[in-house]
Amino acid sequence: MDVTTFTEKARDFPKKKCGVLGATGSVGQRFILLLALHPHFTLHAVGASERSAGK
């Protein structure tokens, strides 16, 4: 399956809103990147603990 086929099929589905908790960690940041590029999801919210404020 090539990229064109994948993106053409993505038009058949409405995008779902999603969020990431733990967004300052390495896994959270990776999820943000993957969701930002995903054709079926739109990144709606991110969250982190108070001790991660400003990161």
UniProtKB/TrEMBL annotation:
<dbReference type="GO" id="GO:0051287">
    <property type="term" value="F:NAD binding"/>
</dbReference>
<dbReference type="Pfam" id="PF01118">
    <property type="entry name" value="Semialdhyde_dh"/>
</dbReference>
<dbReference type="GO" id="GO:0009088">
    <property type="term" value="P:threonine biosynthetic process"/>
</dbReference>
<dbReference type="InterPro" id="IPR036291">
    <property type="entry name" value="NAD(P)-bd_dom_sf"/>
</dbReference>
<dbReference type="GO" id="GO:0004073">
    <property type="term" value="F:aspartate-semialdehyde dehydrogenase activity"/>
</dbReference>
<dbReference type="GO" id="GO:0009086">
    <property type="term" value="P:methionine biosynthetic process"/>
</dbReference>
<dbReference type="InterPro" id="IPR000534">
    <property type="entry name" value="Semialdehyde_DH_NAD-bd"/>
</dbReference>
<protein>
    <recommendedName>
        <fullName>Semialdehyde dehydrogenase NAD-binding domain-containing protein</fullName>
    </recommendedName>
</protein>
<dbReference type="InterPro" id="IPR051823">
    <property type="entry name" value="ASADH-related"/>
</dbReference>
<feature type="domain" description="Semialdehyde dehydrogenase NAD-binding">
    <location>
        <begin position="18"/>
        <end position="55"/>
    </location>
</feature>
